[in-house]
Amino acid sequence: MTPFDSVLVANRGEIALRILASARAAGHRTVAVYSEADAAAPHVAAADQAVLIGPGPAAESYLDPARILEAAALTGARAIHPGYGFLSENAEFARAVEAAGLVWIGPPPAAMALMASKSAAKRHMQAVGVPCLPGFSADAATDAQLTAAAAEIGVPLMVKASAGGGGRGMRLVESLSALPEALRSARSEAKSAFGDDALILEKALLNPRHVEVQVFSDRHGRHLHLGERDCSVQRRHQKVVEEAPCPVLSDALRKAMGNAAIAAAQSIDYVGAGTVEFLLEENGQFHFLEMNTRLQVEHPVTEAVTGLDLVDLQLRVAAGEPLPLTQAEVRFDGHAIEVRLYAEDPAAGFLPSTGRIETWRPPEGAGIRVDAGLREGQVISPLYDPMLAKLVAHGPDRATALRRLRRALDSTVLFGLTHNRDYLRRVLDSSAFVAAAATTSLLDELPPAPDAAVPAPLLAGAAVLQFLADQSRYAAGSGACPSLVGWTGTRDVSTGYDYGSTDSEPRSVQVTQRDTSCFRVSVEGVEHGVALLASLAPGRVRLRIDAVEETLDYCCGVDGRIDLQWRGDGCTLVNRLALAVTAQAGSGEGSVIAPMHGHVVSLSVAVGEPVAQGAAVAVMEAMKMEHRLSAAIAGTVRAIHVTPGAQVATGDIVLEIGPD
């Protein structure tokens, strides 16, 4: 293999930034690609060169092999790293890269093609003796074949897309009567995500652990594993928390799973980084799930416990170098845990969210690593995966790693869009996770907690910060000195707020300024003293509330909203007195509203048709996932405002239902 001096990263966001860092450290010239939606994204400026490859939709940019190859030709890049997601497991793209005379930083296309088909992969693994679950797999299986096989396998069973991964095109079927809809929706999602609607069936294990083994192979016949990761904490089959090592594996079981993973890699003449995924039963039986022929999102936990740079190893292996260590030389140090910060709303069924990042302050500290592709002012688009960042904590033992990760989440500040930070804290605090007893059903049993009452001292601090922000805005518009706005020589003047969280009843707050930095604040008739001690950074202050000094992060909006983070807890407060509430025409209780930006996949009702409360009336797609929209009331469809394929924004009316 000819060494290369330049690497084009065919990806975006934190993925691209991660790969660019190792490529630069290895001395390579780096090239980024970007869509029109990502023109101002951090990965663009991080590379030595960057090329615009098309419009925002991934199908017209990041998923277009021709545009990637054109960018390589334009910049003279000699190697292409696909990252993970997009084209990373596309064997045809890998072949096209090699046909163009470029180095493909990934496994051989033949191995990728075999593992890309879950049906072919499972048949192959059964043939070489790797344990597999009972199921049905056939090339281009029809619904009739799948239905007949399902009756033999029995429920519960999993419907899975034969291509791709990431939980897309997967449906759990607990009753055979639900199979037809599961097949339809899984096919639709698989076609959209992977361009292939082929499906397979597997017997479902309802409470297993998801344990995967990191393998690495070179072109000189050396295959080794770098330990395992426990990825059991999942939602909709997408990983949310990962850790290494798996806290329940015995030495014997760890060796058996490692040997099975190496046997899988050897059997397909694998090269590079790969992951063999297993489902682990409580009795110690494990079953092959799939093999990911790429770098994994969660690779940082393996890097933390092994001290190895997996991207650097990929670059070296792609250049023809042998792996620099043997299996006996692989060392493991301590424990690492990773959480994925998503742009999603846990309280709204984890629907993806979009918005402008007003504040981004990642955590720091011993044993903490943050992989992110964010900057303040960046707009999070509905076009791509909702993952925003990964927070990784490493420590000498699991308890230390967990404690460090909790603190890291407490000090992560992200204002401007809805995200899952507080929910991640709840997951880490759950008794099952603390006891290392989490299975793939944990998040099904851990719904988001209802909003807690906002403490009165926090309301007092929030009102002072909003008062100061309003004071500054007024002064800027009037030319007055900010510290003199609102002063009178005859009496105290108080400013009133009706403050609460977005879903709670407002609570009366009165702010009286005593001097430039001291305030008396009445919260529902109880007085608190608030003093502004220091501004530590934009949007971060040190306050003394009553007798206690606190650091508080905040972001004030012009509409009476203020985002706050205090003692690790986050909330959004609304001053109802500042809101001009307007009713949207036609948006009554029978309106079906788009809960996010995206496009309409299908409509299942027509004007004049009766519908039952809770009935599915439309399907939307956003951030590569399908979402069903349901009728809030029983009635008759009065109007439909969209057609299949139409783009909709958050809050748009999809259709209207009138009560019977």
TrEMBL record:
Keywords associated with the record: ATP-binding, Biotin, Ligase, Nucleotide-binding
Domain Lipoyl-binding, residue spans: 582-658
Domain of life: Bacteria
Signal peptide: none
Record-annotated ATP-grasp domain positions: 122-319
Pfam family membership, one: Biotin_lipoyl
Residue ranges of every copy of the Biotin carboxylation domain listed in the record: 3-448
Cofactor(s) for this UniProt protein: biotin
Record-linked InterPro entries: ATP-grasp, BC-like_N, Biotin_carboxylase_complex, Biotin_carboxylation_dom, Biotin_COase_C, Biotin_lipoyl, CPAse_ATP-bd, PreATP-grasp_dom_sf
Database matches in SMART domains: Biotin_carb_C
Protein name as annotated: Geranyl-CoA carboxylase alpha subunit
Organism: Chromatocurvus halotolerans
Lineage, uppermost ranks: Bacteria, Pseudomonadati, Pseudomonadota, Gammaproteobacteria, Cellvibrionales
